[in-house]
């Protein structure tokens, strides 16, 4: 197989999945724009993005249900795109499961084995054993004789999983695995699927638009927007060090602040910080973001930025406040714990003082291509601070 | 209460009828009377247009007693017509079944240029007069037709022979199976077929194991209607058959010829077709009742 | 590189096109070709005779009237079948399909037997001065018969899917029952009703078997266009005359199809808004 492939710069053997420069266009809509990604053996990767970001296109191309306009996908040195979906050995769990309604659970799971060419088809007894094992793994023993319509949403999802695993795929794809479930079942199944993946160790990729889902379950998160990959990183990385304003907004609910760079200084709410980094001084565009949990109330009344409390909601252990800061027309969202709020609670009708514990600065060059990012921890006073160190990120 | 008030104020049968139609909750008296009137009106329409003709067929067929009836049916020409009708249907219906399945597979699972036109073309025979359908076949496959002379040289007579009857029947009943399957398969989408594909199934395996079981009742339904129409087709077949008694007369043509000579015998033969109709409607109802959910696209 | 993921695109589409080509496209092309060969003058020579014009007038006029009657009766029947529960409702529902499934020749002789002067209904109507069999009224009756199920079966699913929440919404907004019917229900049903009307019309224009028996086919009076086509082919072997007339019928069918396609788009656009 390797001999037939076009010469490749690297030896991909035992390197998992190597996706490079995928492009897919539907009419004028660009679903995938130069997407490259490598997935290690046994990794659990989440592709996260809003609807229309191209994540489902990526999944369908990997499954063989669509072909890219250009680009390549290699698995252990084997050109995956040259194989049709039938022979690809990729397990796909559909968003709405696509279980065969006229087959029992056992028949659904056995399908992939029963349709094998006569020579490769296991004996009936072996199929039966395999199905039993799989149903045991997904904790559905005893439901083998049921029809999909007689199952709950969570059970259906596990049948779909067992069915995909029956063909012993080397890559497992899950399309919005929890999209069709209600909120409670969702949360329970997340942990279950995480553990399940760990026990199998099969390279898996799942697509979701739910940030919590991606961050909670995946080893690595791929954040997509408008057909492009914005950032690839561990859940911690994409939260702490968002590469682009989009990632900051989407993952960490980053909110824009009216910061601007004039000369050598970053100006924000009447405070100015000296900037040491020439790249930012030269930046064409600057975006300053703050996360809801980085806005904290000042201990002493009168301290910090003056803000007005627009609304306050108590949501099971946390307090969500909507604030209006002086000289900024966009309301800011702040999240505090109940305990912190009780400690600070010095708010009056006139307002309260707030501190920004950390803001993230993104600077783009004139082409808008290179983003600079840094997290600043402004002290309460307007002492000059050095902004940096900077990291260059190709976006 | 507003309903009753409307009806009372508006007076007149139209207002009462309207009130009956759109009343909500527990209807007031004038509304209930109007409801009953509406139901009775509908029953009258159905009784007058549907039940009476059906009863007339059997009444006329049995007018001269059972013995006459049986004798009329046992007539050799009639038996020949029965055989021919069954043969034509036995060829035409499976052909249309295959066509319907192929058309539905193509329309439901693929996007291609001209798809809308293809859909319109499939429906076309529905809206063309059967007589025109028969005539156009003569223009192509008749003695002086485009292909007719060549086919005759190959020893195949189409018009005024069996192939013509089959062709006319196929043309007239072409959309029946496709019409049932296309909306259903389009609504079901390609997810399950794609799932089967990723699990390693081949095209035929996907069709026989995944698609067919899900559309089987709709397929049966379409075949049933197609068959009823195929056995009862008159206009198109009339034009291409040449109606040679005992040779190219199907049952409906036999009814037509007998009706000019012996009305009761014609009704005896017609009653056979009417029985087929009643049977068809019965099975159709049964399928709708037992498997209604699998016929409609929205469930 | 093909984008068709599922197998069988070439086989299914190819076979569909093959059948459509040999059974539908080729014959229809032959019809248009033959009609075109006549030229406008030749075509008018075939169509412009008193007999043909009378038949066309009866076919189209009768069909228009019949479809209108079907629209009214069909709305009534569909409404009653969907909204009310009464004895034998299922059986009534099944009966609606009778004109679909009953062979047209059988329907034709049954109607004739009923309405002939010595028939069960005909003998009762005769003293009132109403003649049905062998008159234009008979033609109309047969056309109404074949068209009714089209209207009922088109309306039924729409009526079912509307349920009653729309009316209830209108009710809570203070609409009277009269307003609910004419402002809410009828506008919603109109596209569907028109589609059913067009289907019934197409069927009535082309209908042969059910009509010719009860029509009696009297010269200038009760001859319909399909009957003339058959006459030209069957007894006069006049294929060109038949083709000229057939082309008119085909054109009418195609126009109706176009109208229906437009109607369906209208309905669909509306469905999105709803």
Q: What is the overall pLDDT average of chain B?
A: 84
Oligomer: heterotrimer
Provide the succession of SSEs of chain C. Answer: HHHHHHHHHHHH
Q: Do you know the CATH architecture of chain C?
A: Orthogonal Bundle
The coarse silhouette of chain B is: globular
Q: If you compute it from the alpha carbons, what radius of gyration of chain B comes out, rounded to the nearest whole angstrom?
A: 25 Å
Low-confidence stretches of chain C: none
Beta strands of chain C, count: 0
Mean pLDDT of chain C: 85
What is the CATH topology of chain C? Answer: MetI-like fold
Helix-strand layout with pairing:
The complex is a heterotrimer of chains A (about 400), B (about 300) and C (about 270).
Chain A: E1 17-26, E2 29-39, E3 44-48, H1 55-63, E4 70-75, E5 78-79, E6 90-93, H2 105-114, H3 124-137, H4 153-166, E7 171-175, H5 183-200, E8 204-208, H6 211-217, E9 220-225, E10 228-233, H7 235-240, H8 245-252, E11 255-257, E12 260-262, E13 265-268, E14 271-274, H9 278-281, E15 285-290, E16 295-297, E17 305-315, E18 318-325, E19 332-337, H10 338-344, E20 352-356, E21 359-364, E22 370-376, E23 391-394
Parallel strand pairs in A: 3-8, 3-9, 6-7, 7-8
Antiparallel strand pairs in A: 1-2, 1-4, 4-5, 9-10, 11-15, 12-13, 13-14, 15-21, 16-20, 17-18, 17-20, 18-19, 21-22, 22-23
Chain B: H1 2-10, H2 12-22, H3 29-61, H4 65-74, H5 76-109, H6 115-127, H7 130-141, H8 148-153, H9 162-173, H10 175-188, H11 191-198, H12 203-232, H13 235-241, H14 251-259, H15 263-295
Helix pairs in contact in B: 1-2, 2-3, 3-15, 4-15, 5-9, 5-10, 5-12, 7-9, 7-13, 9-12, 9-13, 10-12, 11-12, 12-15, 14-15
Chain C: H1 9-47, H2 50-83, H3 89-95, H4 98-101, H5 104-115, H6 122-125, H7 136-162, H8 165-172, H9 177-206, H10 209-215, H11 225-234, H12 239-273
Family (chain C): Belongs to the binding-protein-dependent transport system permease family. CysTW subfamily.
Membrane topology (chain C): Multi-pass membrane protein
Main location (chain C): membrane
